[in-house]
Each structure stands twice: as C-alpha cells, then as structure tokens.
Amino acid sequence: MSEILYPEDEAALAAALREATGPLQIMGGGTRQIGRIAPAQALSTRRVQGITLYEPGAMTLVAKTGTAIEDIEAVLAAEKQRLAFEPMDHRAILGTSGQPTLGGVIAANVSGPRRIQVGAARDFALGVTFVDGTGQVLSNGGRVMKNVTGYDLVKLMSGSWGTLGVLTEVALKVLPVSETQATLKIHVTTWADAVGCMSAALGTPFDVSGAATVQAEDGGFDCLIRVEGFETSVQYRASELTQRLAKFGAVDVVDDPWAEVKDLRSWAALDTVWRISVRPTDSLRVIDLMQDLQKEPGFHCQLDWGGGLIWLGLEAAQIANAQAGLALHQALQTHVAQLSGHATLVKSGFLRDQELCHFQPLGRAIEHVSQTLRKKFDPRGILNPGRMS
Amino acid sequence: MADQKGGEKAKSDDKKIKSGELGEDYIKYHAFSVAEDLPLRSPKIGYNYLPIGGLNMEMPQPNSEILSKKAKIAAALRAVLPYDAVIDDPSETRAYECDALTAYRCPPMIAVLPATTQEVSDILKICHREGVPVVPRGSGTSLAGGALPTADCVILGVAKMNKVLETDYENRLIRVQSGRTNLSVSGAVEEEDFFYAPDPSSQLACAIAGNIAMNSGGAHCLKYGVTTNNLMGVTMVMMDGEIVEIGGGYLDASGLDILGVICGSEGQLGVVTEATLRILPKPEGARPVMIAFDSNEVAGACVADIIKAGVLPVAIEFMDRPIIEICENFAKAGYPDCEALLIVEVEGSEAEIQDQLDRISAIAQKHNPVELRQSQSAAESAAIWLGRKSAFGAVGQVADYMCLDGTIPVSALPEVLRRIKELSDHYGLRVGNVFHAGDGNMHPLIMFDANKEGDLELCEAMGADVLRLCVEVGGCLTGEHGVGIEKRDLMEDQYSAEDLEIQMAVKDVFDPAWLLNPSKVFPLSVSQSRRAS
Known about the structure:
Chain A has 389 residues and is an alpha+beta fold. Helices cover 31% and strands 25% of the residues of chain A. Chain A starts with 9 loop residues before the first helix and ends in a 12-residue tail after the last helix. In chain B, the strands form 5 sheets. Chain B has a 7-stranded antiparallel beta sheet with strand order 18-15-17-16-20-21-19, sandwiched between helices. A 5-stranded antiparallel beta sheet of chain B has the order 8-9-13-11-12. Chain B has a 4-stranded mixed beta sheet with strand order 4-5-7-6. Chain B starts with 14 loop residues before the first strand and ends with a helix. In chain B, 61% of the residues are buried.
C-alpha cells in the first residue's frame, strides 16, 4: 500500500475524498486498529489540527480532529479542567504507537471508567464538522450544551468509526478536575460478590465515579470504588461507602489505580482481547460461559462500569489454535446476543486472519438501516468499508 | 421553563385556506384573521402564552384522495384495534386538533389509541399501505407544534401505553411504555429513593414518548444531562410496521448509534413504544443561594467563575431586572432591588451542601454582590425559588408575551443581553430574561399588547431577530422545546442547504415515503420534493 495521505487542512481533506478513486482507510494517529481493516489507501487527519476555541467559563472546547488528546488534556489541565469521559488509551493493549487524536476518540466513542457517572464520549460531543463520502463539508450540532435544532447527527457520527464521514472538527463539553479522589478497595472472593458490591455502591447517593473489579493475586477479586470532589466531601462519602460495603469484604483505601484500570496496561502481553457491554448483573452469565469454555486454560477478566463493561483476555498459551479461538468468539457473540448487549474483538491476536465479525452482528432491520445510512453518507462506499463488520 | 397557559383565548375556527408562495398545495394556518396580508416567510416563533398571531404558518393541503378513503381506513383500523380505540367522528377528533402550541389547530382525519406495540405495528402497516400520514402524539404538551395534525392524517396517541414494564434497581434502570408521564417514571422508583433525572417543567403531564421525540431538557440538566444522556434503549415501530429493538439495558451502541439519532427526531423516524431509562439514587438534599448584582456583566462573570472553580451546581438560574421586578410584584419573594439575580442550587449531604454554598459565596463576594442570601431551611429555599418559579405566570399578568428557548455560549451572555436590550429599544417592546445560565439555555420573554394593532407583528419580528442573534453568537434556535412547526422556517438561518439535506436523507432511510410527521422540522419548500413523492 502506498504511503499515508496527510491532508493539511479540511479543504485538502475534502478534495482528497472527492478525488479518491478507491477505498480509504481513515485514521487519526492510528492507535486503535480495531475491526476489519481492508487493504486501502490510508488517510490520516493528523495534520488537520489545533484548538480553535477554548472557553473554560463555558466549559467548551472546539478542536480540529487531528489534535492529539495529550495536547487537549494539557491545555485543559492548565485551567483545571478535563475530558470527563476519561478516554481509554489503546496503545498499551494493542501495542500501537503514535498519538491518539480527538477524531479517533469521537469516531470510536472511546470512554473510560467515569462513563458510568458522567456519560460516554458521545455525550460530551456538542457539535461536529465532517466530510462525507462525496467530499462535502457538513456540520451538525453546535458548541452549546442544549441544542435540539434538527436531528442529532453528532451522536450518529460518534462511534461510526469513519464509515459515515471523516470528522474534521469537534466541539466538546469539558468539566472541572476534581480537587481530590479516593478509591476504596473491597476484597471479595466471588465474581457475584464483586458485582453485588459495585451495584450496592452505585445505588447510594454518593456519586460514585468509578466501579471496577480486577483479579487479585490470591485468586480473589478487588472491587475498586472511586469518589471524587472536594476534600471534605470525598472523605465523607468514602467513609459512608466504607460502612455500607464492609459486608462484602475488607475495605481499604488505595492509591489511584484508574489509569491502569482504564488502559489495561497490564494486559499488553495478552494475545486476544474482547470488550463486552451487557446489563451489569448479566456480566456473571458471560463469566459463567467463559468458565465453562476456558476452565482448564483459564482467562483474564476485568469488570468496569459496575459490571456493565467486561474485558476478557487470553494469553497465547490459553488458546489451542485459531479454530478454538474462533469457536470461542462465536460462542461469546451468540451468548451476548441472547443477553442483549454486544461483544467486540478488540485485539485479534490468533484470530487476525479469520473470517469473523469483529463487531457484534446486528439484527436484520437495524443492519439494513445502518447499511442504507452508509449509502446516503458515502454513496461510493469508500470510507473504511467493512470496518464495523 | 415552559409552563403552558392559554388556549382559552384561541379561536377554534381560525384555519383559513389561502394559497401562499409555495403554491396551491398549501394551506395557511391562521390564528388571527388580521394576519392575512403579511408576507409568507414571516416566521412564527415560540411562545407560552396566548395570544400570539399564528400569522402565516403553512401546512400542506390535505390529500383529497386520502380523505376520500377515510371510511375504508377507519374500517381497516377497527379490524386490528378495539372499536373505541379508533376515533373518526369529527366531534371527537377535535380533541386532538392541537398540542400546547394552541394557536394552530386542525382536527386529524382519524385518531387511534393503541395499547400495545403490536397494535402500533398493525396501525402503521395499514397507514403505510394506504399512504396515510401519521402524526405520533405523547401527551400533547409540545410547545413547538410537534403533534399538530393535518386534516388528512392519523394521529397516533400513545396515552394508553403507560405501564411500567420492569424496574431493576441493581442495574439502575426502568423500562416503561412510552405513554407514561415523565413524573410518574420517578414516581415508580421513589420508594427505593431513585429518580429519573430529566425534568421538563411540563413533567406532570408530558409523556416519555414526547421527551424522546424532542430530547427534552429541564432545570437540572447542568448536572444530569438531557433525555439523550439518560435514554438507554427503545422499542420502536418503523413506518412499515416492523418492530425493532435499539439499545437496552447495556451502555453504548454496538454498531452505529441509531438510538442517538432517534432521540430528538421529533417523531419523524419511527414510533417509540417502550423505553429503557437510566434511574439514579436521589441526592441526600439540596439548597440554593441567591446572589444579586448591579449589572448583567458581573452576574455573567460570576457564573463563569463558579464553573471555573470546579463547583458544579445542579442548577444556575439567571433573572434580569425586568423579570425580577415583575416577579417581586407578583410573588413577593423578597428579591432585592438589583439588575441581575442568580439562584444557584447544590446537592449532597448537609455538610457537603454547606461547603459548596460557602465556596460559591466566596466567589460571589469577589464580585461585590448587592445581596447574598444562603438558604438555611426548606422554607427559605422555597422563598428563593418562589419568584423564579412564578416568572411566567407573573409576566402573563402584566402583558401578553412570547417566550423563546434559543441557546447561546455562556460567555456570550453579556453581549446577547446587551443586544436584546438594543432590540427591545428598537422595537419598543419590553423584554425580560430568565435563563438557565449554567448551560446557556435562554428564555427571553418579549412582552407586547395583543390588542394594540401592529404590536404582535413587531413581537414576531423581534423574536426572529433574537433567535438569529443566538445563532450568530454561536448558539442555536432551540435548546429544549424542539423545532416542530414553530421554528421550522428559521432552520435555514442555522443550517446550510447541504446540512439540511443530510438530515433529510436520514429520514429517507427510516421513512422513504415521508409519512411520519412529514411537515415538521424542515422548511416546507426544502422538503417539498420528498413529501410529494
């Protein structure tokens, strides 16, 4: 494949799309190689960059999509603000280099542990400008927090993985950084207690902003419960939660573990990783399935969003061959479909050359709607074709 | 804060047929006959209180072919619905002739009241086959005419579908039929100390179906977000009758975020019959502080400083002098003599509330407030809120008024208030501003005298100028009421032809024949070729 195209600005990007004669692989910094990536000319938004507006008092930031998330976070930090949805950095788990960009975060709707409290990337996107598959520059939404003027294509573009258009500018809602945080670790012995503990925490009025569970070295599990805010308030809520969660296991206050939880840094060596979204208590049924199918070789598991987000991982040694991996993948997607939810193969490892659905297959009617939408936005089918299949 | 009043002054026979610039295919809907000679594109803007002239709002001429099939269509609907769920007697269809935008009225051809998703599917199959337009209706509280019928349409009311289907506290969600009212969703989970966060001011009456159609907001969305941020899934019936599940008890979409575009699509993409909603544990308590300033600019700067300091109140309400005076005269809330008043409310435990109020007060003190009053009790909280909550009623006592709901960047507040004042001087009409200052959602109330010739026209022209001003400073036409028919003809002020085209292309995907609520949201001239097809 030829070299990556780097249009210098939105106009050049639009021209590149108009002049394209074949499929394009749309990318930002290229750090999230997730989904089916067909051979195609790569086109990066990386040089369409820069923060065009930042008003801390209005909690609004507008930037070109090639802007590095790192740069945006630095500018926000100087005003004690942040991207509250806490976008995951996929570089560790996927072994990619380069800079995660704003465009990538929105196009893939990437959120982190705080999603459970404040919402996803899509909830913080106030407006978008994008180039459709015919090279037209289009806008939707705006830069204000309440806007019901016309259809909400901002949501539609968020998480569309570049298959409807190439984002060139995004307006974001940002929030203040909390003065402090406290994280409680509750040690439990079963996944059921872990989910029960997280659910109990999230059912309190104490504004829990993170509820995850990681496997502990002793074979048990550590529930991690985060509260954020002003010092006295955090102390109060942490102490209330400590009392209420003690029935699940020993409660300790631990150092901030959330970067590790968010980015799965300790999973870098794993071969295959799935990301599954279900109703939180249904996570136990997914884990049951894995325990049936992977009893002997074992598997890695981390829960986030109170159990609603399941990360499953396999070491190379935990999978016999590609056929076994494929069978497991299909069993997971079938099971998750029955529960209502979705399973995405995030790191394909052994499965990289297999014919499979990286994203959860959709029902017939919604698949039809999705395909028809793509034809409207990208009549030639040149934008990341097949990426979300 | 869109409390609906009025209706009593609306005339029932105010619809007159007259050809407009769009040709013989259109009817002008008139609220007042004086309006006949005004130019066609004079846009109709939002209001809460009649009378307002529905000067020249056009709707398509009813399709005579459809009207001639009325008996056949009613019979087909009765074959799939209980007899009394199909209303075709003109004396009874009149009950559905308008929503809360009462200036515009037109009884539908037929109204249907299904009780199940399957019945909705059966209805839509018939209408799809017969080419009959369908206007979905929740509780009929739209301020934008979202549920206004046409004479050749079937109104599909979901009011009978009001059941709670599932409450799941462990997973913090509730599943309801879409005709259930907003407040009764919270009511259903109250015993476990949970609530449903979006709280439009019509929440006692408005249905979840309408909340989803308009992506409704409320006073507390600074902290909790609007409907789209609290909607997890829907059961929806497509125009061809197919029943689809979108989203559910899990977070985020697996494929394209179809749910995200359904929410706020004003009933034009499908009929939502069930919804999965996020519920939250109730906060321990809440209390406001009232801060008075001698200029709008200083009040605006104080809002920005509160936000920058990292305090995130659940509500920041702003009132300017005209509103403060009117409210004080009306409600005797004890508001001080000042230019601008902020009411800032925070939540948490008693100690947390006190801590946050102290921080806010310290920030406010730097701006030399005229007065600062922290509520120390439920009674004091009620007194502080009293004036604000009676604002619309109070203004209604002194004048006829039009209320807009454009949104602006918070930073543009002083400029926008200054320019609204200039417009007010230019047009010779008083304006009062109440404002969700935290999120930029304005509610300017333009006061006029409906009995004074020409005042109404002035008011409408000024309203359009105010909304254009909102767009010019980087805001939008509507923050929470929706476009409907009301701001339909201003859409080209916000969006380019291409931006509107791609939105209409989305409707093409869901409803290729443009049968669902077809004459709303997009200017008729822009959607004409699609609706004609």
